Amino acid sequence: MKFIDEYRQSDLARNLADKIGRLTDKPLKLMEVCGGHTHTIFKYGIEDLLPPNIEMIHGPGCPVCVIPLGRVDDAISIALRPEVIFTTFGDAMRVPGSKISLLDAKARGADVRMVYSPLDALKIAVKNPERQVVFLALGFETTAPSTAMTILQAAKNNVRNFTAFCNHIMIIPALKAMLDSPDLQLDGFVGPGHVSTVIGTRCYEFVAVDYQKPIVVSGFEPLDVLQSVYMIVKQIVEGRAEVENQYPRAVSREGNPRALGVLAEIFEPRDYFEWRGLGSIAHSGMRLQQKYAAFDAELKFQVPGLRIADPKACQCGEILKGVKKPWECKVFGTACTPETPIGSCMVSSEGACAAYYNFGRLSKIAQRQTGKTASQAA
Amino acid sequence: MTSHAFKMQSMIPGVNDELEVEKEPNASETTDFTPSPLFERVERARRRKHKIRETHITLAHGSGGKTMHELIEALFLDYFRNPLLEQLEDQAVFEVGHPEGAASRLAFTTDSYVVDPIFFPGGDIGKLAINGTVNDLAVSGARPLYLSAGFILEEGFPIADLKRIVESMRDAARVAGVEIVTGDTKIVQQGGADKVFINTAGIGLIEKPVRISSAAARPGDKVILSGTIGDHGTTIMIARGELELETELASDSAPLNLLVQEMVETAHELNALNGIHCLRDPTRGGVATTLNEIALSSEVCIEIREDLLPVREEVKGACEILGLDPLYVANEGKLVAIVSAEIAEPLLEKIRKNAAGESACIIGEVKAVPQGIVAMVTGFGGTRIVDMLAGEQLPRIC
Questions:
Q1: What pTM was estimated for this model as a whole?
Q2: Taking CB atoms and an 8 Å limit, are A94 and B32 in contact across chains?
């Protein structure tokens, strides 16, 4: 396929992996921040190719995984209202709330519909003027502009029965929180690609300057990820800490000014927003600005708004921070499986646990590390 | 891979020229399956007794994935249990004795069709209802003979559309060489069903002493796939108009009974009738789910190679956009055959001569361990597990 297969050539990959191996044999911990990269790493077996001294830590960049239980419950309480058509991206359907998921709510009579874009939700609103159509807005700056555009359109066309339940989050505050976390020792970052098409690479400069860590913004094909790892390791070996862009075919230093403009028009930062496993992070969430309050589902519908603690057994938090590996969680693969997820990391295909469960069971890295963990425990 | 592949990288935007390096001799491509504690823990979870945890039916129960298997094994099988049903094949195969003559081996199956939309490129609900049931019979090695047809119609459904569906069923039955010999009609009020649902049951005769079963795969067997994967599911998604994509794609709905009969004949001529081990048509859940069912039933590992999988460019593109894997997307006229290595090539040759199998190929082979696992050597050089999906997001594709 045009510009797909070209990024998936195995000979190129092996050569790149060998080059990484020749740079250093020092043990290095690199975090891929974005869930899309986690998925790529597992789907293509990239950890099999990497030299044994490079350990990938799977970060918090899966938006479905970091949505806290309380917000899922709020979404379900809106969905269960008889006047509501609740629209959502498909991967949020199975995320467990404290009692049920949206998929269960649908089975109990809630009108929950899967859409591919918020604009589809707006179309449903126009077609069903007697119903209230709510869109579950979810994701980083990657998906936020499409929510913002939809709200602009709804405002322009005076669609009064459309609202968004806004859970949009921002990557930079989360990255900062990770860097400030005392239990986390990382040597470098594979920077998110899709988010950066919107926000650009300039905003990562604090990672290099203030924290002295290399960060390479990466594309999502397997060769992209391998090349980014190469670039990070090369920086470390050469004693540099810089922001580099491996993904210039989509990402610029300044980002996408139009998308940023729309975001600024529609959203404002919340004082605090809770992340599953990471806790409350200042200025990390977005909400609709006062002038678009008519489109804010949180204002239109009463939601419980409760903060609900994660199940005790669930260690999604440690896993999202990369402090624990999925298989070190007690319920991984026993009580928590993709069919009956307890934690959100097991739900989305971008979640680290689901990735290990589905793809990583045979990975040599996992074998080596589980072997190590077992012997350490003994 | 040839050396020109390395020149290509300078044409790929974003990949630095700096990375142009000498080609290394190919590393040995054996798959290392040393089990890890992680692996064992997950395997235990995969094999534990099925239990229904949900209190209500969700769409995941119809997906063809693990949730549906839970419903079948923990509820239907539990209450209806008998040796024929326990085999959980696409059809039941049994002998019907005759006081004065030899017993006949019959195959019996039933299937319901709720596809939405009811008309789509390459077919309609009626054509699916015939071919689906014909194929469920054919993959036991049977010659399908007679079908029943039950219609559940929603009040207000246009007669003209029903006529179109019935015509299409007549034509499909003619092509497959079966007759619809009994039927039923029920009407429900508006909202009681969506337009039209069809159930067909079928009966077929197994003439040659084949022993085809999803529990019959053996290490060393070859895995043959009769053509491109994911055509039907992708066509239905696009036909729903939610994606606003335009393609030339059409459903692959087709009867497989003639193809299977030719394979049985060929194996018979080679004096290797028992070399045909498993035949399945990979519908809901796609090739991945079918191979998982075989790997679990036969207690073997099935290893496939990503670079050998035939996938149309349009299907690849649509799946890429949607984040789907064509391995899990439904087919309605494809055959997965697991056969002993000795007869793989002559069978493949025969399959390719049939219109339904022109692009057939061998996609992998059966290994002894790890049992119950489908593994794939990725085009990128890594290995990964191809598991059954928990539930898929494409309801009502057949």
A1: 0.80
A2: no
Residue of B nearest to A369 (CA): B36
CA distance A140 to B188: 46
Find the range with the poorest average confidence among A107-111, B181-185, B237-241, B360-364: B237-241
Distances, alpha carbon B45 to alpha carbons A4, A254, A286, B295, B372, in Å = 35, 48, 39, 16, 13
What are the chain B neighbours of A357 within 8 Å (beta carbons)?
Answer: 42, 387
> What is the tens place of the pLDDT at every residue in A114-131?
888 899 999 999 999 999
CB B344 within 8 Å of CB B218: no
Ramachandran region, residue A42 (left: φ > 0; alpha: ψ -120 to 50; beta: rest): alpha
Query: Is residue A305 scored above 60 in pLDDT?
Result: yes
**∠ Cα B277 B279 B282 (to 5°):** 145
Architecture of domain B211-398: Alpha-Beta Complex (3.90)
Cβ contacts of residue A261 below 8 Å, gap of 6+?
Answer: none
Least Cα distance to A41 among A19, A57, A62 occurs for A57
User: With contacts defined as CB-CB under 8 Å, which chain A residues touch B32?
Assistant: 364
Domain with CATH 3.30.1330.10 in chain B: 91-207
Write the pLDDT tens digit of every residue in B231-255: 999 999 888 877 777 788 999 999 9
CA-to-CA distance for A140 and B88, rounded, in angstroms?
A: 44
The answer to whether the Cβ–Cβ distance between B36 and A367 falls below 8 Å is: yes
What's the confidence (pLDDT) of residue B13? 41
CA of A291 to nearest chain B CA: how many angstroms apart? 31
For residue B374, what are the β-bridge partners? B302
Domain with CATH 3.90.650.10 in chain B: 211-398
pLDDT at A364 over 60: no
Side-chain-side CA neighbours of residue A277 (13 Å): 26
Q: What is the pLDDT of residues B269-279, one digit of tens each?
A: 999 999 999 99
Residues 3-62 of B with CB under 8 A from A: 5-6, 8-9, 11-16, 19, 21-24, 27, 31-39, 41-45, 53-60
Mutation site, B384, B387, B394, interface A, largest A CB count within 10 A: B384
Closest-CA residue of chain B to A341: B390
**CATH H superfamily, domain B91-207:** PurM-like, N-terminal domain (3.30.1330.10)
Q: Which domains does chain A have, with CATH numbers?
A: 5-60+172-245 (3.40.50.11750), 69-170+255-300 (3.40.50.11740), 316-371 (no CATH)
Phi, psi of B276 (to 5 degrees): -85, 110
Using an 8 Å CB-CB cutoff, list chain A residues near B35.
Answer: 367
Cis peptide upstream of residue B310 (ω within 30 degrees of 0): no
**3-class secondary structure per residue, B256-293:** CHHHHHHHHHHHHHCCCHHHEEEEECCCCCHHHHHHHH
Model confidence pLDDT, tens digit, residues B99-127 = 777 889 999 999 999 999 999 999 999 99
Q: Per-residue DSSP letters for B292-338?
A: HHHHHHHT-EEEEEGGG----HHHHHHHHHHT--GGGS--SS--EEE
